[in-house]
Structure formats: structure tokens, C-alpha cells
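Good morning,

Attaching, inline, the C-alpha cells for the sequence recovery test we're adding to the shared suite. The designed sequence is right after.
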């Protein structure tokens, strides 16, 4: 499992490496709707997944199996029913990438 830091910013782009491949991940907080979203692009800033709402304890990229995403699932680990602007900053939620081989081990 890879823990990915969500910066304490309303909009940010970070570079991450998964399985020796570079990706750009964008986190955006929508103050009007009071929710977080994320997107993943390749290293050339070409979108793979754009503006997906982040919900707790749900495999966020489960239905995106036809894309150039790394082999696994992005998600949020938390005990909260709903994420707030401060959930990641206060350590109440963690954004993660779980490779398929680790998902299969849990079943």
C-alpha cells in the first residue's frame, strides 16, 4: 500500500511514482460543495482520470479498468462517514493506492 499525502491546499498537483512509472495526481477541494476530488495524469500531463469525487472507504478507480492507471485501486482510509476540508490535514483520513496483488491477498 502506498500512502499519498494530500497537500493542505485547495488545489494541488503532485508527482508520484507507482511501479516505476511517474504519474501526476491532482487534489482539489470544492468549497461550495464541501468535497474533495482527485485526478490522475501521465507524466506528460495527459489526463487518465479527471475530477473524481473522493468518498470514504470506496475503491475510487474500481470501474476504470480500461485506462492507463497503474494496476490497483486508489481510495481513502478513514472512520469518518464524510470527508471535510481538514480530514487529511488532521490525520483523520489517508489517501492510498493499493496494488491489485495486495487487494487479492485480503480476500
Amino acid at each position: 500500500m502506498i500512502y499519498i499525502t494530500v497537500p493542505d491546499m485547495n488545489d494541488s498537483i503532485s508527482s508520484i511514482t507507482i511501479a516505476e512509472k511517474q504519474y501526476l495526481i491532482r487534489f482539489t477541494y470544492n468549497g461550495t460543495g464541501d468535497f474533495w476530488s482527485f485526478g490522475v495524469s501521465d507524466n506528460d500531463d495527459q489526463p487518465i482520470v479527471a475530477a473524481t469525487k473522493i468518498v470514504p472507504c470506496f475503491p475510487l478507480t474500481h470501474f476504470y479498468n480500461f485506462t492507463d492507471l497503474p494496476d490497483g485501486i486508489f481510495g481513502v482510509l478513514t472512520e469518518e462517514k464524510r470527508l471535510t476540508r481538514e480530514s487529511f490535514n488532521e490525520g483523520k483520513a489517508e489517501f492510498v493506492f493499493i496494488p491489485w496483488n495486495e487487494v487479492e491477498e485480503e480476500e
